[in-house]
Structure to design on (348 residues):
């Protein structure tokens, strides 16, 4: 598989993003949704921030307080044996879990797709009881003249998926939760198939420890049903532990092409491809046995959570997959693959 990484990777790093408040620091900017809007390429970035602690033995966590409409800080001592900091993303206590960062979504604009002007203020921030731990991992689907954004909403009641929309990327309408917990990696197909809207989603089964991709359909983008199983992790392959949808699928002569992510037993995240039937997208035609993009460069291997390439956004133009992807939960990178190489990878 021939992958052309930008020589300017990472194209966006934490140091490039202004914190939303002076008492926070940006520790990650990654997992961006992407679209073309007028004469620009827009990224909707996930910006992860953490409160700055002035005490070496105290870890702070930011939590959105609905009643006060503001982010408040909680303190956790490193000397308290009830606080588990083994995962850099989490503060695990006997009866509750907190995140070490809180995320919002922020716009970045570009004319060449590589050099971006990042806005100083957030576009979408935590705003209700389902988003108290942050909003994450947006995907953008264009349907008609409207840009629909699915994003992960995180709170103590679970990981859910919400929907927002915009026509101008200045104001955003919120449409509430569209999938209950535990569910994420939700993306919308670009338009109806046989009169219905379709979405990929990733429910979690705690009993059977499964993280698989499913399909759902809707008449209106907010009420979802007729859920169908699509595909599972595969033993001994690059996606053996868990999988999830990544980018908005696009039509090819052979069917819908979806780039998805998978993790192995060592939490190494890669990207692969799956081809779905045009009119019956619950039917898998072919699937990558080898990744189309995997952690190889130093900036993909080392970081806040290393050995990760993870995408929420891609442009398909000029017979190329132009992939914007997060690396090590830290930064944004860019790579190109030809459609021919990806289809060859599927061994059609």
């Amino acid at each position: 598989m021939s992958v052309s990484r930008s020589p300017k990777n990472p194209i966006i790093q934490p140091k490039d993003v202004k914190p939303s408040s002076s008492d926070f620091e940006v520790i990650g900017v990654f997992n961006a949704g992407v679209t073309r809007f007028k004469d620009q390429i827009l990224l909707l970035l996930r910006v992860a921030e953490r409160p700055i602690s002035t005490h070496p033995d105290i870890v702070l966590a930011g939590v959105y307080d609905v009643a006060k409409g503001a982010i408040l800080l909680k303190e956790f001592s490193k000397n308290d044996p009830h606080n588990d900091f083994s995962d850099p993303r989490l503060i695990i206590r006997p009866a509750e879990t907190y995140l070490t960062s809180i995320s919002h979504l922020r716009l970045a604009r570009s004319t060449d797709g590589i050099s971006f002007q990042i806005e100083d203020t957030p576009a979408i921030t935590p705003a209700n009881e389902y988003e108290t731990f942050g909003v994450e991992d947006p995907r953008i689907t264009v349907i008609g003249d409207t840009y629909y954004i699915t994003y992960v909403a995180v709170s103590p009641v679970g990981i859910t998926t919400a929907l927002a929309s915009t026509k101008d990327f200045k104001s955003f309408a919120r449409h509430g939760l569209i999938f209950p917990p535990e569910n994420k990696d939700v993306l919308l197909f670009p338009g109806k198939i046989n009169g219905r809207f379709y979405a990929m989603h990733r429910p979690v089964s705690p009993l059977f420890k499964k993280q698989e991709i499913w399909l759902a359909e809707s008449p209106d983008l907010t009420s979802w049903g007729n859920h169908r199983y699509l595909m599972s992790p595969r033993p001994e392959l690059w996606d053996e532990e868990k999988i999830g949808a990544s980018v908005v699928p696009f039509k090819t002569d052979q069917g819908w092409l979806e780039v998805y992510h998978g993790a192995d037993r060592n939490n190494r995240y890669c990207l692969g491809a799956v081809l779905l039937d045009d009119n019956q997208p619950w039917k898998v035609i072919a699937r990558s046995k080898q990744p189309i993009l995997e952690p190889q460069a130093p900036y993909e291997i080392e970081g806040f959570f290393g050995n990760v390439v993870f995408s929420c956004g891609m442009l398909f133009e000029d017979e190329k997959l132009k992939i914007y992807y997060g690396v090590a939960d830290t930064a944004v990178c860019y790579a190109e693959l030809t459609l021919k190489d990806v289809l060859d990878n599927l061994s059609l």
Q: What stands out?
A: The two ends are 15 Å apart (CA to CA). The chain has one domain: 4-345. The domain at 4-345 is CATH 2.115.10.20 (Tachylectin-2; Chain A). The CA atoms of residues 41 and 113 lie 6 Å apart.
